[in-house]
Amino acid sequence: MSEFTTLPDLALRTLGGSVIAASDESFAERESLIRPGRPGFQAHTFGAKGQVYDGWETRRRREPGHEWALVRLGLPGVIRGVVIDTAWFRGNYPPHASVEATAVEGYPTAAELEAADWVEIVPKSDLKGDAEHFFDVTDERRHTHVRLNMFPDGGIARLRVHGDVRPDLTLYDGLGLDLAALANGGLVVGCSNEFYSSPNNVIAPGLARHQAEGWETARRRDDGNDWLLIRLAGPGVVKLAEIDTTNLLFNAPGSVSITGTADGVTWSGLLPRTRLQPDTPHRFRIDDAPVVTHVRVDVYPDGGLARVRLHGSLRES
After folding, report:
1. Which of 28, 50, 61, 280 lies in disulfide reach of 57, CB 3.0 to 4.6 Å?
2. In terms of CATH architecture, what is 3-165?
3. Which Pfam families does the record match to this protein (predicted)?
Protein backbone atom coordinates (compact mmCIF):
# COMPACT_ATOMS: atom_id res chain seq x y z
CA MET A 1 0.00 0.00 0.00
CA SER A 2 1.26 3.49 -0.88
CA GLU A 3 0.41 6.87 0.66
CA PHE A 4 -1.16 8.10 -2.58
CA THR A 5 -4.05 5.65 -2.15
CA THR A 6 -5.55 7.97 0.50
CA LEU A 7 -6.27 10.43 -2.33
CA PRO A 8 -9.41 10.13 -4.49
CA ASP A 9 -9.45 7.69 -7.40
CA LEU A 10 -9.90 10.15 -10.26
CA ALA A 11 -10.97 7.41 -12.69
CA LEU A 12 -13.60 5.74 -10.49
CA ARG A 13 -16.91 5.08 -12.21
CA THR A 14 -18.92 6.50 -9.30
CA LEU A 15 -16.95 9.76 -9.64
CA GLY A 16 -17.81 10.04 -13.33
CA GLY A 17 -15.00 8.07 -14.95
CA SER A 18 -15.51 6.13 -18.16
CA VAL A 19 -13.57 3.63 -20.26
CA ILE A 20 -14.33 5.18 -23.62
CA ALA A 21 -12.44 2.78 -25.88
CA ALA A 22 -10.29 -0.35 -25.87
CA SER A 23 -8.35 -2.23 -28.51
CA ASP A 24 -10.09 -5.48 -27.59
CA GLU A 25 -12.44 -6.87 -24.92
CA SER A 26 -13.18 -10.32 -26.29
CA PHE A 27 -13.34 -12.14 -22.94
CA ALA A 28 -14.32 -9.48 -20.37
CA GLU A 29 -15.60 -5.94 -20.73
CA ARG A 30 -13.40 -2.88 -20.38
CA GLU A 31 -15.88 -1.10 -18.07
CA SER A 32 -14.85 -3.39 -15.19
CA LEU A 33 -11.51 -1.58 -14.91
CA ILE A 34 -12.97 1.36 -13.00
CA ARG A 35 -15.73 -0.28 -10.96
CA PRO A 36 -15.74 0.51 -7.24
CA GLY A 37 -14.73 -2.15 -4.75
CA ARG A 38 -12.46 -5.15 -4.87
CA PRO A 39 -12.77 -7.49 -7.87
CA GLY A 40 -14.91 -10.56 -7.27
CA PHE A 41 -14.53 -14.07 -8.59
CA GLN A 42 -16.57 -17.25 -8.65
CA ALA A 43 -14.96 -20.40 -9.97
CA HIS A 44 -16.54 -22.47 -12.73
CA THR A 45 -18.85 -19.72 -13.92
CA PHE A 46 -18.53 -20.14 -17.65
CA GLY A 47 -20.32 -18.15 -20.33
CA ALA A 48 -20.19 -18.32 -24.10
CA LYS A 49 -16.73 -16.70 -24.04
CA GLY A 50 -15.22 -18.73 -21.20
CA GLN A 51 -14.72 -18.15 -17.47
CA VAL A 52 -16.46 -14.98 -16.29
CA TYR A 53 -14.00 -12.42 -14.85
CA ASP A 54 -14.61 -9.18 -12.97
CA GLY A 55 -12.06 -7.29 -15.03
CA TRP A 56 -10.92 -6.47 -18.55
CA GLU A 57 -9.61 -9.41 -20.58
CA THR A 58 -8.52 -9.47 -24.22
CA ARG A 59 -8.06 -12.25 -26.74
CA ARG A 60 -4.69 -13.96 -27.22
CA ARG A 61 -2.81 -11.88 -29.76
CA ARG A 62 -1.40 -13.77 -32.74
CA GLU A 63 0.31 -10.74 -34.28
CA PRO A 64 2.75 -8.05 -33.12
CA GLY A 65 1.47 -5.22 -30.99
CA HIS A 66 -0.24 -4.74 -27.63
CA GLU A 67 -3.65 -4.01 -26.14
CA TRP A 68 -4.83 -0.72 -24.62
CA ALA A 69 -7.77 0.90 -22.86
CA LEU A 70 -8.57 4.62 -22.88
CA VAL A 71 -10.07 6.11 -19.69
CA ARG A 72 -11.65 9.53 -19.26
CA LEU A 73 -11.06 10.69 -15.70
CA GLY A 74 -14.26 11.55 -13.90
CA LEU A 75 -12.30 14.17 -11.97
CA PRO A 76 -9.43 15.85 -13.87
CA GLY A 77 -6.36 16.41 -11.76
CA VAL A 78 -2.72 15.88 -10.90
CA ILE A 79 -2.03 12.14 -10.75
CA ARG A 80 0.02 11.06 -7.74
CA GLY A 81 -0.07 7.31 -8.20
CA VAL A 82 -1.54 4.40 -10.16
CA VAL A 83 -2.60 0.93 -9.05
CA ILE A 84 -2.79 -1.89 -11.60
CA ASP A 85 -4.59 -4.86 -10.08
CA THR A 86 -4.47 -8.30 -11.73
CA ALA A 87 -6.70 -9.93 -9.08
CA TRP A 88 -7.83 -13.47 -10.05
CA PHE A 89 -5.90 -13.37 -13.33
CA ARG A 90 -3.31 -16.10 -12.77
CA GLY A 91 -2.65 -17.84 -16.08
CA ASN A 92 -3.88 -15.02 -18.27
CA TYR A 93 -2.39 -11.80 -16.87
CA PRO A 94 -0.14 -9.54 -19.01
CA PRO A 95 3.55 -9.71 -18.08
CA HIS A 96 4.01 -5.95 -18.58
CA ALA A 97 1.98 -2.74 -18.54
CA SER A 98 2.45 1.02 -18.86
CA VAL A 99 0.25 4.09 -18.38
CA GLU A 100 0.14 7.34 -20.39
CA ALA A 101 -1.78 10.55 -19.66
CA THR A 102 -2.96 13.64 -21.52
CA ALA A 103 -4.98 16.82 -20.98
CA VAL A 104 -7.66 17.62 -23.55
CA GLU A 105 -10.45 20.02 -22.60
CA GLY A 106 -14.04 19.66 -23.68
CA TYR A 107 -15.52 16.32 -24.68
CA PRO A 108 -13.17 14.69 -27.20
CA THR A 109 -13.93 11.39 -28.90
CA ALA A 110 -11.55 8.45 -28.76
CA ALA A 111 -10.48 9.20 -32.34
CA GLU A 112 -9.73 12.83 -31.48
CA LEU A 113 -7.62 11.76 -28.52
CA GLU A 114 -5.32 9.82 -30.83
CA ALA A 115 -3.83 13.15 -31.93
CA ALA A 116 -3.28 14.37 -28.36
CA ASP A 117 0.14 14.81 -26.75
CA TRP A 118 0.52 11.80 -24.46
CA VAL A 119 3.14 11.55 -21.71
CA GLU A 120 4.26 8.34 -20.05
CA ILE A 121 3.51 8.47 -16.31
CA VAL A 122 4.18 4.78 -15.59
CA PRO A 123 6.92 3.21 -17.76
CA LYS A 124 6.61 -0.32 -19.08
CA SER A 125 6.78 -2.38 -15.88
CA ASP A 126 6.67 -6.01 -14.83
CA LEU A 127 3.39 -7.42 -13.55
CA LYS A 128 2.55 -10.49 -11.49
CA GLY A 129 -0.63 -12.50 -11.56
CA ASP A 130 -3.34 -11.99 -8.93
CA ALA A 131 -1.57 -8.98 -7.36
CA GLU A 132 -1.86 -5.23 -6.83
CA HIS A 133 0.96 -3.15 -8.30
CA PHE A 134 1.59 0.37 -6.94
CA PHE A 135 3.34 3.02 -9.04
CA ASP A 136 4.19 6.53 -7.81
CA VAL A 137 3.76 9.33 -10.35
CA THR A 138 5.85 12.51 -10.21
CA ASP A 139 4.39 14.45 -13.15
CA GLU A 140 2.90 17.72 -11.79
CA ARG A 141 0.73 18.47 -14.83
CA ARG A 142 -3.06 18.31 -14.83
CA HIS A 143 -4.54 15.44 -16.86
CA THR A 144 -8.00 14.55 -18.11
CA HIS A 145 -7.45 11.10 -19.68
CA VAL A 146 -5.18 8.09 -19.20
CA ARG A 147 -4.30 5.16 -21.46
CA LEU A 148 -3.52 1.77 -19.96
CA ASN A 149 -1.28 -0.40 -22.14
CA MET A 150 -0.83 -4.13 -21.57
CA PHE A 151 1.91 -6.11 -23.25
CA PRO A 152 1.01 -8.12 -25.21
CA ASP A 153 -2.47 -9.20 -24.00
CA GLY A 154 -4.34 -10.73 -21.06
CA GLY A 155 -6.47 -9.56 -18.17
CA ILE A 156 -6.38 -6.68 -15.68
CA ALA A 157 -9.07 -6.44 -13.02
CA ARG A 158 -8.84 -2.80 -11.88
CA LEU A 159 -7.07 0.44 -12.70
CA ARG A 160 -6.90 3.06 -9.92
CA VAL A 161 -5.69 6.58 -10.70
CA HIS A 162 -5.20 8.47 -7.43
CA GLY A 163 -4.50 12.18 -7.30
CA ASP A 164 -5.45 15.76 -6.48
CA VAL A 165 -8.61 17.06 -8.14
CA ARG A 166 -8.05 20.09 -10.38
CA PRO A 167 -11.38 21.12 -11.97
CA ASP A 168 -11.98 24.07 -14.27
CA LEU A 169 -13.88 26.38 -11.89
CA THR A 170 -14.14 29.18 -14.47
CA LEU A 171 -17.37 27.47 -15.53
CA TYR A 172 -18.89 28.81 -12.30
CA ASP A 173 -17.88 32.47 -12.73
CA GLY A 174 -20.81 34.53 -11.44
CA LEU A 175 -22.62 31.42 -10.21
CA GLY A 176 -22.88 29.54 -6.93
CA LEU A 177 -21.39 26.09 -6.41
CA ASP A 178 -20.85 23.40 -3.80
CA LEU A 179 -17.60 24.60 -2.23
CA ALA A 180 -17.05 21.27 -0.49
CA ALA A 181 -17.66 18.94 -3.45
CA LEU A 182 -14.87 16.56 -4.35
CA ALA A 183 -15.65 17.22 -8.01
CA ASN A 184 -14.96 20.93 -7.49
CA GLY A 185 -11.65 20.39 -5.70
CA GLY A 186 -12.83 20.01 -2.10
CA LEU A 187 -11.10 17.42 0.10
CA VAL A 188 -11.48 16.07 3.62
CA VAL A 189 -8.06 16.81 5.14
CA GLY A 190 -8.76 15.82 8.74
CA CYS A 191 -11.07 13.44 10.56
CA SER A 192 -11.48 12.22 14.13
CA ASN A 193 -12.48 8.67 13.17
CA GLU A 194 -13.17 6.65 10.01
CA PHE A 195 -13.71 3.21 11.46
CA TYR A 196 -16.49 2.10 9.11
CA SER A 197 -16.01 4.22 5.99
CA SER A 198 -14.00 7.02 4.41
CA PRO A 199 -14.92 10.62 5.29
CA ASN A 200 -14.35 11.68 1.67
CA ASN A 201 -17.55 9.78 0.88
CA VAL A 202 -19.58 12.69 2.26
CA ILE A 203 -18.38 15.03 -0.51
CA ALA A 204 -18.64 12.51 -3.37
CA PRO A 205 -21.02 13.11 -6.29
CA GLY A 206 -24.61 11.91 -6.15
CA LEU A 207 -26.59 10.42 -3.30
CA ALA A 208 -25.47 7.63 -0.98
CA ARG A 209 -27.26 4.39 -1.84
CA HIS A 210 -26.53 2.78 1.54
CA GLN A 211 -24.63 3.36 4.78
CA ALA A 212 -21.26 2.29 3.38
CA GLU A 213 -21.37 5.13 0.84
CA GLY A 214 -21.31 7.73 3.60
CA TRP A 215 -19.00 8.38 6.58
CA GLU A 216 -19.55 6.45 9.80
CA THR A 217 -17.48 6.47 12.99
CA ALA A 218 -17.03 3.94 15.76
CA ARG A 219 -19.16 4.32 18.91
CA ARG A 220 -17.56 6.81 21.28
CA ARG A 221 -17.12 5.78 24.92
CA ASP A 222 -15.85 9.15 26.21
CA ASP A 223 -17.11 12.72 26.55
CA GLY A 224 -15.79 13.93 23.18
CA ASN A 225 -17.34 14.17 19.74
CA ASP A 226 -16.39 13.28 16.18
CA TRP A 227 -15.56 15.75 13.42
CA LEU A 228 -14.18 16.19 9.92
CA LEU A 229 -12.25 19.06 8.35
CA ILE A 230 -12.98 20.00 4.74
CA ARG A 231 -10.64 22.05 2.54
CA LEU A 232 -12.92 23.99 0.22
CA ALA A 233 -12.50 24.29 -3.55
CA GLY A 234 -11.16 27.80 -2.87
CA PRO A 235 -11.74 30.74 -0.54
CA GLY A 236 -15.48 31.29 -0.43
CA VAL A 237 -18.61 32.29 1.44
CA VAL A 238 -20.91 29.46 2.51
CA LYS A 239 -24.61 30.35 2.25
CA LEU A 240 -26.35 26.99 2.56
CA ALA A 241 -25.27 23.82 4.37
CA GLU A 242 -26.79 20.42 3.59
CA ILE A 243 -26.29 17.73 6.22
CA ASP A 244 -27.72 14.46 4.95
CA THR A 245 -28.29 11.47 7.26
CA THR A 246 -30.09 9.36 4.62
CA ASN A 247 -29.80 5.58 5.27
CA LEU A 248 -28.55 6.19 8.83
CA LEU A 249 -31.57 4.96 10.76
CA PHE A 250 -30.10 4.12 14.17
CA ASN A 251 -26.62 5.60 13.94
CA ALA A 252 -27.14 9.23 12.90
CA PRO A 253 -25.57 11.92 15.11
CA GLY A 254 -27.84 13.68 17.57
CA SER A 255 -26.69 17.13 16.46
CA VAL A 256 -24.17 19.02 14.31
CA SER A 257 -22.28 22.32 14.34
CA ILE A 258 -20.17 23.99 11.63
CA THR A 259 -17.25 26.42 11.94
CA GLY A 260 -14.91 27.90 9.36
CA THR A 261 -11.48 29.52 9.08
CA ALA A 262 -9.39 31.36 6.50
CA ASP A 263 -6.08 31.26 8.36
CA GLY A 264 -6.24 28.13 10.52
CA VAL A 265 -6.16 30.25 13.67
CA THR A 266 -9.37 32.28 13.85
CA TRP A 267 -12.54 30.19 13.68
CA SER A 268 -16.00 31.60 13.01
CA GLY A 269 -19.30 29.95 13.79
CA LEU A 270 -21.32 29.15 10.66
CA LEU A 271 -23.99 26.90 12.18
CA PRO A 272 -24.56 26.58 15.94
CA ARG A 273 -25.11 23.14 17.42
CA THR A 274 -28.34 22.00 15.80
CA ARG A 275 -30.47 18.88 16.25
CA LEU A 276 -30.48 16.24 13.49
CA GLN A 277 -32.98 13.54 12.59
CA PRO A 278 -32.11 10.06 11.29
CA ASP A 279 -32.52 9.23 7.60
CA THR A 280 -33.18 12.85 6.67
CA PRO A 281 -31.66 15.48 4.33
CA HIS A 282 -31.28 18.71 6.37
CA ARG A 283 -30.77 22.14 4.81
CA PHE A 284 -29.65 25.16 6.85
CA ARG A 285 -29.30 28.75 5.61
CA ILE A 286 -26.12 30.51 6.75
CA ASP A 287 -26.22 34.31 6.92
CA ASP A 288 -23.38 36.85 7.09
CA ALA A 289 -20.62 34.22 6.88
CA PRO A 290 -17.02 35.37 6.40
CA VAL A 291 -14.69 34.16 3.64
CA VAL A 292 -13.25 30.79 4.68
CA THR A 293 -10.93 28.20 3.15
CA HIS A 294 -11.62 25.31 5.56
CA VAL A 295 -14.78 24.16 7.29
CA ARG A 296 -15.04 21.88 10.31
CA VAL A 297 -18.18 19.79 10.74
CA ASP A 298 -18.66 18.51 14.31
CA VAL A 299 -21.16 15.72 15.01
CA TYR A 300 -22.36 14.92 18.53
CA PRO A 301 -21.40 12.55 19.89
CA ASP A 302 -20.68 10.14 17.01
CA GLY A 303 -22.43 8.37 14.14
CA GLY A 304 -22.57 8.87 10.41
CA LEU A 305 -23.37 11.31 7.64
CA ALA A 306 -24.34 10.41 4.09
CA ARG A 307 -23.42 13.72 2.46
CA VAL A 308 -22.23 17.24 3.33
CA ARG A 309 -22.88 20.04 0.82
CA LEU A 310 -21.67 23.60 1.41
CA HIS A 311 -23.22 25.82 -1.23
CA GLY A 312 -21.83 29.31 -1.75
CA SER A 313 -19.61 31.40 -3.98
CA LEU A 314 -15.89 31.75 -4.52
CA ARG A 315 -14.33 34.98 -3.22
CA GLU A 316 -10.91 36.51 -2.88
CA SER A 317 -9.41 35.72 0.53
Report:
1. 28
2. Sandwich (2.60)
3. Allantoicase (PF03561)
